Amino acid sequence: MKKLIEFKKVTKEYKIGEVPIKALDGVDLSISEGEFVVILGASGAGKSTILNILGGMDTVTSGQVFVGDQEITRFNEKKLTEYRGEKVGFVFQFYNLIPNLNALENVEFATEVCKNHLDAKDILHKVGLKNRIKNFPSQLSGGEQQRVAIARAVAKNPLLLLCDEPTGALDYVTGKSVLKLLQDLNRETNKCVVLVTHNSAIAPMADKIIKVKSGMIESVTINDEKQSVEGIEW
Ligand SMILES: Nc1ncnc2c1ncn2[C@@H]1O[C@H](COP(=O)(O)OP(=O)(O)OP(=O)(O)O)[C@@H](O)[C@H]1O
């Protein structure tokens, strides 16, 4: 498989007062096209920092990040904004939908700026919300709101789908159905999904498991016997 993402010796330091915090300390990693990657680690390990840098929401202190044939660490503000808008779909723990827009409008609002976007209605049908497209976020359950957020990310037709604890606010059954949706989308569209979580039990659904500890890569495991979410219990 062709390489899509590469981190080379990436460090990230945050300065709070006089004390620097090393969130990432020499991270090397690579991810291929179409891979479903799970990034695991304890709280504060650096998982979200990796995701935020990859998504162009944060910058490195040193090192290089390549996505496709471009080095995003060389991008200026304008190119980073374009990259975030066109190439990256984000799914967060708290769905961040716009409360006064209905499901369809939430998706359309996000795709407006994207050249190659998909049809918002089609994607909402795909995530199982055919009959809810006119509902406002307050009229939808947590799981349904997360489906809208996933539709919003996918409808941009991005290169990457980045998910930060996407099931963190959901109950077991709903969380599982959201993971299944992400797994199905990855299988059907061959889009690369990078999912950050504390929950090591979901690792068997990934092609690659990257463990992060104290800002460093602890291990990378290629999973040759990937499992369907339905078959995983935790
Ligand atoms: N904007 C920031 N300013 C200062 N320190 C930060 C900032 N963002 C992250 N950090 C610090 O960097 C380290 C890594 O944080 P990060 O959010 O990447 O961890 P995480 O593995 O995603 O944790 P969690 O699972 O709790 O979200 C932590 O020590 C955190 O406090």
TrEMBL record:
InterPro entries found in the cross-reference section: AAA+_ATPase, ABC_transporter-like_ATP-bd, ABC_transporter-like_CS, MacB-like_ATP-bd, P-loop_NTPase
Keyword ATP-binding attributed: yes
Domain ABC transporter: 5-234
Molecular-function GO terms, alphabetical: ATP binding
Pfam family, one: ABC_tran
Keywords for the protein's UniProt record, in alphabetical order: ATP-binding, Nucleotide-binding, Transport
SUPFAM superfamilies: P-loop containing nucleoside triphosphate hydrolases
Transmembrane segments: none
Family under the similarity heading: Belongs to the ABC transporter superfamily.
Protein name listed in UniProt: ABC transporter ATP-binding protein
Protein source organism: Paenibacillus profundus
Lineage, opening ranks: Bacteria, Bacillati, Bacillota, Bacilli, Bacillales
